[in-house]
Structure formats: C-alpha cells, structure tokens
Design goal:
By secondary structure, the chain is mainly alpha-helical. It has 11 helices and 5 strands. β4 (218-219) and β5 form a beta hairpin.
C-alpha cells in the first residue's frame, strides 16, 4: 500500500500495524440500526484525518465519550472499510456487480479524508475494467458524478475510460447520446480527457482540408453526425451492459 500523505503533501512512512493497536478503543455506530463497531482509536485516527479531528479534539464531545455515529453509511460499506483498515488490502472484484460496493467505499474514504484508501480503490476498479477489456457503463459514471466533485480521482478515471470508449466506437450508443446532451459537465470532461492525450496534430483529421475524408459516411441510410447516434454496434469495443448495471445494491449504486 502507498503511504498516507502528510499535511504538507509529502508521503509519510507507514507505521506497522502492531504500533497502532493500543488499548484505547472508540465506538463507531453505523446505519439506521446503529450497528456497533469498536475500533482501535490510534489506528483509525492514523489513517483518517477526519476521525483524528474528532477524537483528538478535546473540545469535541466525541473526544470525551469516544463515540461517533455514521447513520448514512450502511453495514456492507463499513465492513469493507474495517477490513481495509486492519489489513490494508481490498478483495479484487470477480464480477462487475461488485464494483458498486467499492464505489460506496470510495465515497466513504473521501468523506473520511483517506487518500491512500481512495487510491487503492481507484486502482482496483481501473484494473478490473482493464483486465476484462470492458469500460464503465453509463449508470456507473452517473453514480460517480452524483457523489463526487470536480477534480476527483475516481471521476477522472471513469471519464477518461469513457472518452476512449466513445472515441474508438463507430457510433454513439443511444443512452450515451441522451446522457451527453443532458449533462454538459460530463461532455466537457470528456473533451478535457481527450486533450490530456496530447495527440500530435498529424494524427487528428483536419475538417478544413477538403482533400481528406471528413467522416460524412453513410451509416444505415443516414449521413453526417446523426449517423453515429442511436446504434449499439461497438465491434471490438465493449461497455458493461445495462442489465448488469441494473442490480442495485441498496444505496442507489448500479
């Protein structure tokens, strides 16, 4: 695992687990049922500046009671969090439906200011799509956009993948065409991602040059830009199916 960044942005060396398992425990209550998780205070605060600001702040009541509630977090997500906290490891997803819980864990890591956990999850999700030669589906991207802000690592990885998916496709799937027309920020981010490729000018078709094909080829009887919308024929480019994404995990994650 990569070291946690220090406050000045530099990486600090990781402390071994046994040095963080002191006698002091804190009680974390999760979800609507207030599921109880007793955790080692030093370990929790070492990895999470968010919790450090709560339990190491003497003016905070939670510092005295050693209790804190996360009613908006479900047990599945927090269970994954506790597993990483004590092992610094994540289980590789065997199928696309397991990406949803990882995204929920990522959103929790962002809330708890845990940059190392965020990076581990982004790397895991990235590896899944790359190893399976697929791309994030629309529902996944929309879920990430709904729960993150601009300049977010997971958002940038997702939109970069989508930029490649759409660029290599012969047509724009209808659901993507509709989404891009509605979500201007997503469209702008895709252009930004393509700009980051730093393509050489000679590798980009020049529509001002009348001597080259400008892409107005006939496709199923249509000519021009409309010809690249509404088709789902992707040839060798694969997007995770909407059917797979329709399995909701209870938090709205497809």
């Amino acid at each position: 695992m990569s070291p946690e960044p220090s406050q000045n942005g530099d990486a600090k060396p990781q402390k071994p687990l046994h040095e963080l398992l002191t006698h002091t425990l804190v009680d974390i209550y999760v979800g609507e049922e207030n599921s109880h998780y007793p955790l080692h205070e030093k370990l929790l605060c070492y990895h999470s500046p968010y919790f450090a600001s709560i339990f190491y702040n003497k003016s905070n009541s939670s510092s005295r009671t050693k209790e804190y509630g996360l009613p908006e977090v479900d047990d599945t997500t927090f269970g994954l969090f506790v597993g990483w906290l004590y092992s610094r490891a994540l289980r590789y997803p065997e199928q696309e439906s397991e990406i949803g819980p990882l995204l929920d864990l990522y959103f929790l890591a962002t809330k708890l200011q845990m940059a190392t956990l965020e990076t581990d999850i982004v790397d895991m999700v990235r590896a899944f799509y790359h190893n399976n030669e697929t791309y994030p589906g629309l529902r996944r991207v929309q879920y990430v956009y709904a729960n993150t802000d601009e300049d977010n690592k997971m958002r940038e990885m997702m939109v970069g993948s989508v930029a490649r998916f759409l660029t290599l496709s012969d047509s724009i799937p209808e659901h993507w065409a509709k989404a891009l027309k509605k979500n201007g920020q997503l469209s702008v981010d895709i252009i930004r991602s393509i700009q980051e490729w730093h393509l050489e000018a000679r590798n980009v078709p020049d529509a001002r040059d009348a001597s080259v094909d400008r892409g107005r080829n006939e496709f199923k009887g249509a000519v021009g830009f409309s010809a690249v919308e509404g088709s789902s024929e992707m040839d060798d480019v694969k997007e995770e199916s909407e059917e797979e994404e329709a399995h909701v995990n209870g938090n709205g994650a497809a």
